[in-house]
Task: inverse folding
């Protein structure tokens, strides 16, 4: 089973800001519908590689971009 | 045809604006932030990119501090009604538009006290007048950045200092200045700034915004409209997060796309070029008008202290007749009357008759100015 990272945010604006931030840092990221297993919300989330988990946390903190949770989930559960 | 009604709405729009709006409808037609599919994501990107551009344009560090509204009126209502409570005092200048005065008069009936810092006959509001109005505590100062009647620019950085010293917040109505003059919220120390997209920013109508300074706590502002934001959907309470707190309901996507395109166009052109064009056209207009007998021209007469708006009367001639003749006989489009700003007209002594307002724009040429002066010479001669 492959695990992937998923970062959730409180607003779409923050998702867009985070996507740009992570892309500029050279990280492969994808926008995905927020997995229902992680949130009851209706918006979008950012998917990234499992190995980038710590860097995503650091970059978001440095940019003072508040996340609504950074998770590692089975790809099959997305 | 010569269009001199840019203070009502700028026309024509720069190349690329209409195309960007159509493209948004064709290729980014989803609801931004509501769904996870590609059309929704494309829409969300477009909204975010425009927000980011505007944040840079107005000198705030967080894009989420630019809140989209329908227009400056909506943004001013959000700021004023969101901050003022019965028993509060609000200080305004004598040059305010009804977008400021009407919400305040409505609040006055609910127990809000309003004090006017009077303007001088040329539209200037001396900082001392604001200082004098703030000898008693006030919650809020609301000031126009430039009058929509005379174009007179007001010293909002000084107003901010005076307001803050008195413990009041400053809301600035930038309807006539956003896009015309550089505005940096941080260096001006303004708390809240209302702008519209369709005037000097050269975007489409139906889109504007409220810019919230980096230092200002947005939770202090009650949302004017509550509803769905696509975020925190598990909760029935309005979110505190920016920009969602103030952006309930589906946004004006084509409007935002058009505004994004016009702001890019303005940035490429640059403020130096915009200023030199404006001062040349405005200066030529003022110089020419000064040589036409029978005209009364309002304002400072100084292009460095004003945006390109000129108000005038022609003898005792009703302004409606002057405006109609300019349109019918010369193809010159102006706006006559009170310009939704009775307070400003009272301040400059043109109430209730009003004025003929000439508002050139970035597409007004020297030849347009010459033809306008010639037309006014003929109108004044009869």
Result:
């Amino acid at each position: 089973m492959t695990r992937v990272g998923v970062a959730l945010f409180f607003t779409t604006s923050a998702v867009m800001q985070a996507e740009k931030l992570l892309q500029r840092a050279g990280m492969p990221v994808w926008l995905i519908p927020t997995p229902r297993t992680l949130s009851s919300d209706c918006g979008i989330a950012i998917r990234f590689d499992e190995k980038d988990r710590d860097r995503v946390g650091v970059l978001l903190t440095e940019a003072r971009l508040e996340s609504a949770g950074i998770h590692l989930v089975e790809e099959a559960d997305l | 045809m010569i269009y001199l009604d840019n203070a009502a709405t700028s026309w024509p729009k720069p190349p690329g604006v209409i195309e960007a709006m159509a493209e948004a409808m064709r290729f980014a037609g989803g609801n931004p932030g509501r769904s996870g599919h590609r059309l929704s994501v494309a829409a969300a990107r477009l909204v975010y990119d425009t927000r980011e551009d505007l944040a840079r344009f107005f000198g705030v560090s967080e894009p989420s501090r630019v809140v989209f509204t329908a227009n400056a009126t909506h943004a001013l209502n959000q700021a004023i009604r969101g901050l003022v409570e019965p028993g509060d005092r609000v200080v305004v200048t004598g040059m305010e538009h009804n977008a400021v005065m009407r919400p305040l008069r409505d609040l006055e009936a609910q127990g809000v006290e309003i004090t006017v810092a009077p303007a001088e006959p040329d539209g200037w509001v001396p900082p001392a007048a604001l200082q004098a109005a703030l000898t008693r505590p006030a919650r809020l100062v609301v000031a126009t950045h430039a009058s929509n009647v005379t174009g007179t620019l007001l010293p909002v950085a000084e107003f901010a200092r005076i307001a803050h010293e008195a413990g009041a917040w400053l809301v600035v109505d930038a309807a006539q200045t956003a896009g015309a003059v550089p505005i940096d919220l941080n260096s001006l120390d303004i708390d809240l700034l209302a702008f519209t997209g369709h005037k000097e920013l050269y975007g489409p109508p139906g889109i504007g915004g409220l810019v919230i300074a980096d230092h200002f706590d947005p939770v202090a502002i009650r949302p004017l409209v509550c509803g769905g934001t696509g975020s925190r959907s598990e909760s029935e309470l309005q979110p505190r997060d920016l920009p969602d707190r103030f952006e309930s309901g589906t946004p004006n996507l084509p409007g935002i796309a058009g505004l994004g395109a016009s702001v890019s166009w303005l940035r490429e052109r640059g403020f130096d070029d915009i200023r030199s064009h404006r001062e040349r056209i405005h200066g030529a207009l003022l110089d020419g008008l000064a040589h036409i007998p029978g005209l009364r021209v309002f304002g400072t007469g100084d292009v460095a202290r004003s945006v390109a708006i000129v108000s005038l009367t022609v003898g005792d001639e009703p302004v409606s007749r002057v405006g109609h003749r300019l349109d019918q006989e010369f193809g010159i489009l102006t706006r006559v009357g009170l310009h939704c700003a009775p307070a400003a007209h009272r301040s400059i002594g043109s109430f209730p008759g009003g004025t003929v307002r000439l508002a050139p724009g970035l597409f007004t040429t020297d030849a347009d100015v010459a033809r306008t002066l010639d037309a006014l010479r003929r109108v004044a001669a009869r």
Residues 38-58 of chain B form the longest helix (21 residues). The interface with chain A takes residues 32-37, 40-41, 44-45, 47-49, 51-52, 63-64, 229-234, 239, 241-244 of chain B (CB under 8 Å). Chain B has a mean pLDDT of 97. The radius of gyration of chain B is 21 Å.
